[in-house]
Amino acid sequence: MQATLPPALRALRLPLRLRLWDGQQLELGPDPRVTLDIKDPALLALLASPRLDALAGAYIDGGLDLQGPLPDVIALADQLSAAMGVADSTAPEARVAHDRQTDAEAIAYHYDLSNAFYALWLDPEMVYSCAYFPTGTEDLATAQRAKLDHLCRKLRLQPGERLLDVGCGWGGLARFAAREYGVQVTGITLSRQQLALARERVDAEGLADRVSLELMDYRDLPGDGRFDKVVSVGMFEHVGHANLGLYFRHLFDAVQPGGLVLNHGITSRYPDGRPVGRGAGEFIGRYVFPHGELPHLSTAIAQMSEQGLDVVDVESLRLHYARTLEFWSGNLEARLAEAARLVDEKTLRIWRLYLAGCAYGFRHNWINLHQILAVRPLADGSHRLPWSRADLYV
């Protein structure tokens, strides 16, 4: 029995082949680059209104399979979704109450997956955040070292200073700052697996006298201004809109007057924080980052300012993150057999889509990433920053 496809779908002329449960093959355009294996007849109706989260969910649950280069898969899914009239959401994301238990569970879900799995596709330092490509030609390891140096230069770190690293991950930045800039680093995380490996690496490099890493919620940070500088990389996405003010207040209280605070994080395209990508945001919220909320740049700056932090510099690294994710996705695709021995099939499917999909999303301006540098002003409103940025690029 011949399958019935929506007329609009047949008219698309996309380089896509549909392979149905009964063996039928339908080509929607010449020279198909991607094949969609539809195993469940009920999923054929999905193609009439192919939201990206619904397509992803069907793949994750095994109702369909994907054949072809993953970047082509993601691009064709986007073209299919757009051509069939699926619209972006116009409603703000539902807000989540971010208490300590909720945040700890969300962090464990994402970051305590498997250190060995992350090591398959990250750089040797296991820096799980946007790299920095000064020329665009660097390999991943070089770009990640450049990012760590870029952060330290922006913070104008000096030997002997005390640096707080909020959300320290596997400790790559903490070790780099201690080793290359001679600072004393305190790092905090909610991920037990990250912390265990980070401490191992600190000890292996002989940095235990300069780097202290703790399992701690940002709400438990000391508020006595004991740190000269504060950095937070890839952390505030987990804080939640309702807690942004509280979060930046804790960073303000942790740094001494005249000290710098550098926040590096993913930001929303829309000022109201609504998801984009015709269901892509919902996919990430459901499968990858539960309870994650992306504030717009204007919201982040407003909350920092409200808490007394004077914003002095903002830099977008959107295309840098697209390139980073393309490296990560390519690394994972090259080591799928090893990855399948470390995580279950469903998890691997989630991460294949997540890395390739986010690379596409950053490349196409669905989301952004900003480094925001701020200072806690001295009592008279002044600060000690140089008059120009020239020192960053010497």
From TrEMBL:
Pfam families: CMAS, DUF7884. The keyword Lipid metabolism applies. GO terms for molecular function: methyltransferase activity. Signal peptide: none annotated. Keywords: Lipid metabolism, Methyltransferase, S-adenosyl-L-methionine, Transferase. Residues 121-374 form the Polyketide synthase-like methyltransferase domain. It comes from the Bacteria. SMART domains: PKS_MT (SM00828). InterPro entries: CFA/CMAS (IPR050723), CfaB-like (IPR048027), CMAS (IPR003333), DUF7884 (IPR057206), MeTfrase_dom (IPR020803), SAM-dependent_MTases_sf (IPR029063). GO terms for biological process: lipid biosynthetic process; methylation. The active site is at C358. Belongs to the CFA/CMAS family. This is Fatty acid methyltransferase. The lineage of its organism: Bacteria, Pseudomonadati, Pseudomonadota, Gammaproteobacteria, Pseudomonadales.
